[in-house]
Amino acid sequence: MFNHHRGLWGYTGKAPDGLPLTIQSTGMGGPSAAIVISELADLGAAVLIRVGTCGGLHPALGLGSLVVADRALPFDGAGSVLSGGENPLHPDPQLLAELSADPETRQGAVAATDLFYENPPEEQDRWRRGGAAVVDMETATLYALARRRGLRAASLLLVTDLLWPERTRMAHEALPDHERRLGEVALRGLLSCSG
């Protein structure tokens, strides 16, 4: 562990291919993620993969599904401001291809929001009408900042909540196994791109 500034833990070391690898918490929401992403870029980070959780909006998704965000729809404040009007925002094509090649993943659009619990049903309807399969709070900010700073970025998300037709949450004791699987898929994709 090399960092716990602002209460956001960071670890650094080497990936199996010998290249440097850092795992850094961004906190929750676009504003927190924007600070961390900018500081990582200032420190020399060039490739970023968000590995996190999301809420499922599409009926084909179940708890535990892994979704590669093939586009981000900025319905949030930070993502909207940083996007400069670009909508949708896109990941790095090679990272998208490598993460999507894993048989455990599926592609989908992610809507970005500022609220975790209190989004009204009409807002969820707006996300679905926009084509979103899932919703999170950080991917639009990541894609917008990556474009601005010339970084390669992608987002791999674990569905831990189903928001439609009613909210259903993954059991807490099931999270560690799914989170480990999420990290393993992200690392395989990252290693494929660096090799």
Note the topology.
Layout: E1 10-14, E2 20-24, H1 30-42, E3 47-56, E4 66-74, H2 77-83, H3 93-101, E5 105-112, H4 121-129, E6 132-136, H5 139-149, E7 152-162, E8 168-169, H6 175-194
Parallel strand pairs: 3-7, 4-5, 5-6
Antiparallel strand pairs: 1-2, 3-6, 4-7, 7-8
Helix pairs in contact: 1-5, 2-5, 3-6
- CATH hierarchy class name: Alpha Beta
Assembly type of the chains comes to single chain
- Beta percentage is 25-35%
Overall pLDDT level: 93
Brief digest:
With 195 residues, this protein is of the alpha/beta class. 35% of the residues lie in helices and 28% in strands. Strands 3-6-5-4-7 form a 5-stranded mixed beta barrel, surrounded by 5 helices. It has a two-stranded antiparallel ribbon with strand order 1-2.
How would you characterize the overall build of this protein?
- The chain is of the alpha/beta class and 195 residues long.
- The chain has a single domain (50-194), classed as 3-Layer(aba) Sandwich (Rossmann fold), CATH 3.40.50.1580.
- Helix content is 35%, strand content 28%.
- The chain has 6 helices and 8 strands; from the N terminus they run ββαββααβαβαββα.
- It has helices spanning 30-42, 77-83, 93-101, 121-129, 139-149, 175-194; strands spanning 10-14, 20-24, 47-56, 66-74, 105-112, 132-136, 152-162, 168-169.
- A hairpin with a 5-residue loop joins strand 1 (10-14) and strand 2 (20-24).
- Helix 2 (77-83) packs parallel to helix 5.
- The radius of gyration is 16 Å and the shape is globular.
